[in-house]
Specification:
Blueprint (H helix, E strand, L loop, with lengths): L1 H19 L5 H14 L25 H6 L1 H4 L3 H26 L8 H11 L4 H9 L3 H14 L5 H4 L4 H9 L5 H8 L3 H21 L1 H9 L19 H9 L5 H25 L3 H15 L11 H10 L7 H5 L2 H12 L17 H7 L1 H23 L1
Helix pairs in contact: 1-5, 2-5, 5-6, 5-7, 5-8, 5-17, 8-10, 10-12, 11-12, 12-13, 14-15, 15-16, 15-21, 17-19
Amino acid sequence: MLLLLIPLGVLLVGLVGTLLDLRLGVDSAVYRSGALTLLNGEPLYEFSTLGPEPWWALLPFTYPPTAALLFVPLAAMPTQLAWGFVAAVSVLLLSLVIRVTIATLGERRWASPAKATVVFSIALLALEPVWRTLFLGQINVILMAIVVLDVLVIGSSGPRLRRWGGVLVGVAAAVKLTPLIFVAHLWFIGRRADAARAGLTFVLLQGLLFAVVPGDSRDFWGHAVSDPGRTGPIHWAGNQSLNGLVSRLSGLAPWSLYAAVGVGLVLAVPAVWLMLRFHRQGLALPALLVTAFYGLLVSPVSWSHHWVWVVPLIVLLAARVPRGVSLPQWRQWAPPAGVILVYASGVLLWMSNGHDVELFWSPLQFVPGSAYLIVPVVIGTVLTVSGLRGKRAA
């Protein structure tokens, strides 16, 4: 009941915002405008803004046409209420992700999983990626929940439900291309039929939009998908991808993208090895998290609010802390506490940023200014080295 009060409160804020014409949800306003533009038969990508956008949300539509189709329900709502709806659904699905995470752990770490879900759901709203996702009306939590349901719930269900495995991943990828990495995840862990269904779902949805709005589909796949001007400055501190990091380090050198791709390819080897190691040990959640964080690293753009996958990571790390109060055991709180500190503080945005100042950061600024991507690299390195040592010892 307590968890229902938060989304209801968010919806109420959206309703009040509609009455007072408040500026709520920049990104959800763009989603709604994309749906209206599609319904009106107007071009989605011809201009840098959309006609129905309010004056305080004049941004380009960066998603595939399939996303505009799936955003159509938002077109029936006022802008502020659309934000309230997206944010409320995100809060509910955040709780769902946490509940699935706890269930996937396969152990009674907490006496009441339901109460633990409530505590985590409220406490982790303080994480910068989470509250910024809600504030902007972004869909990061929604997409994460869709992937978690497909990979962790449907993947471990009975034969009747398993027949739909991969479909949700395909839908998520059709909305925002970055979830395509989970098609590869399904393939590598041996769920080849699910990977095929995910790929087929993605292709069929794109084909549907090519039939319905061929012009928009050609515009998106022809130029908009690779137009850096539609996403914002890649070297801004908020872009916590390898591409953003290398762009800042190199001063926007023309070779920076190739260097980022090269680093990503190098990291792919330990990432796949670690993911498969977890999978063979029956640890589906850690395996999924390896893929999720690798995807955030290699995506051309990973804004700070994209890093909502830190939520199941924190729950997982907290569950691994043994009970007791002795000093050695308290030290084991360091991993979850450190991760919470980094992502709750939003430390990367403490650094001077914007107007190209990131290109002149000192070494002392680069470390906290790249904190979001450093965390998974450090954790992955420790786990990989530990795994290799254990393999040699065996």
